[in-house]
Amino acid sequence: RKEVEQDPGPFNVPEGATVAFNCTYSNSASQSFFWYRQDCRKEPKLLMSVYSSGNEDGRFTAQLNRASQYISLLIRDSKLSDSATYLCVVNPLTGGGNKLTFGTGTQLKVEL
Amino acid sequence: EPEVTQTPSHQVTQMGQEVILRCVPISNHLYFYWYRQILGQKVEFLVSFYNNEISEKSEIFDDQFSVERPDGSNFTLKIRSTKLEDSAMYFCASRQEADVGEAFFGQGTRLTVV
Question: What is the pLDDT of residues B16-43, one digit of tens each?
Fold first, then answer.
């Protein structure tokens, strides 16, 4: 099983649509979770951290289910500018380095 | 807003040559990382660095790779003898705390080995 698994997409949605991305992770001892956004040929940028209680930031809602080792991201009222690749990122409990492990990313294309 | 800066933005080198990629992490951060992304593929962890030593490295980070932080500000990645398959975008990242908190990424160095 891959450390962090995502549906690569692409998801092609009309402007205004609601879209949901899912992610599963294999290391049950993982400590922190993030969604990053990556535009074409650019660096990853933090979209939001994911907390056990679930959290919302404007049109974006992230949820974590530790029992199922599952993370989700919901984007409401999607805009053209949301077109990007969304990266599920997990911080496994490893010795010392606390590296971030990336999923392959889910590509979103928002269309008129 | 503080940012991670990387130089150069693009480097073309001949196979077998040595390259040094440079990064200036955010000043009060303690944890430093190098990642790479081959075109069309996922972001892959190379190495993490804390307290002036490597804390973790991946299988990719073999004897051809090394990192150092010579002067307390720059954080460098050296590839001793580049191969064609080293062609990728290399991202430096830094983080204030381990375990939690955002990792900030530099804009990357695109390395092309010919």
Answer: 999 999 999 999 899 999 999 999 999 9
